[in-house]
Amino acid sequence: MPITVWRLDSRATANPVDGFATRLARRLIQIYTEPHDTVADFDDDPHLEAASHAAGRTYLSLTGPASLQTLGRQPGAASLIVCRWPRLVAWPTRPTTLFAACHLVRAPDGCVVAALRRRDTDRVDYVDHTRILQQATQASGFRHVLQIVAVGGADTGDQFTYYATAEEATEVVGAQPGDAGICYIDMLAHSAASPGHPLPEPVWP
Fold first, then answer.
1. What is the H or E stretch that residue 110 is in?
2. What Cα–Cα distance (Å) separates residue 171 from each residue in 54, 56, 151, 175, 176?
3. Mean pLDDT, to the nearest integer, of 168-189?
4. Mean pLDDT to the nearest integer, 72-101
5. DSSP letter at 180?
6. What are the tens digits of pLDDT across the range 21-76?
């Protein structure tokens, strides 16, 4: 899978974590959407919502099965869908449910970006989280198209390295100061698999 590294200049903000989240949200919207597109979010993230409105996009917070009915497979369906893994909210907790819902709201050329965050309290290893996510996306009719390694704290402006190697990405992350370690996240971008791939029936908990 191709890898790109985003080094985001967030140190000039009062709160580096908020600055990182804001710049990350803006970059995602810039890359994956056009004006008047819809951004769907399974985690009700305030940074993503603010960045969507500022860029002239429609923001849709998906907080339960009922919220899916407001979009569906209609013109204007989501060009960018963002979710976190592992899940930190009540719905949807199962990966199969999450990606079935993505199919219901995704525009034909829409992209699903799953953000994987290391947590010190996890009993499941980070590699296991990645494997679970990859298996779920493939079984749900999605394919991985890009890994994005986003790191905050750069003091020379935003820098983007395309076609980075795994070693280069690891080196950038390892160079983070200890107090800035929280400003780092992996993201996996997905598109729909080939048209012949059968889509699973959504099963809601």
1. strand 106-116
2. 33, 36, 11, 6, 9
3. 70
4. 80
5. G
6. 899 999 999 999 999 999 999 999 999 999 999 999 999 999 888 787 766 555 55
Residues 175 and 178: their CA atoms lie apart, in Å, by 9
Q: Judging by DSSP bridges, how do beta strands 38-41 and 78-85 pair with one another?
A: parallel
What is the end-to-end Cα distance of the chain in Å, rounded?
A: 32
Buried b (16+ CB within 10 A) or exposed e, 155-194: eeeeeeeeebeeeebeebeeeeeeebeebbbbbbbbebee
Does residue 185 contact residue 47 with C-beta atoms inside 8 Å? no
Quote the pLDDT of residue 57.
Answer: 95
pLDDT of 198 reads 41
**Omega within 30 of 0 (cis) for the link into 205:** no
- Nearest-angstrom CA–CA distance, 52 and 202: 28
Element (H, E) at 102: helix 95-105
pLDDT grade, residue 95 (50/70/90)?
A: confident
| Whole-number Å distance between alpha carbons of 168 and 161 | 9
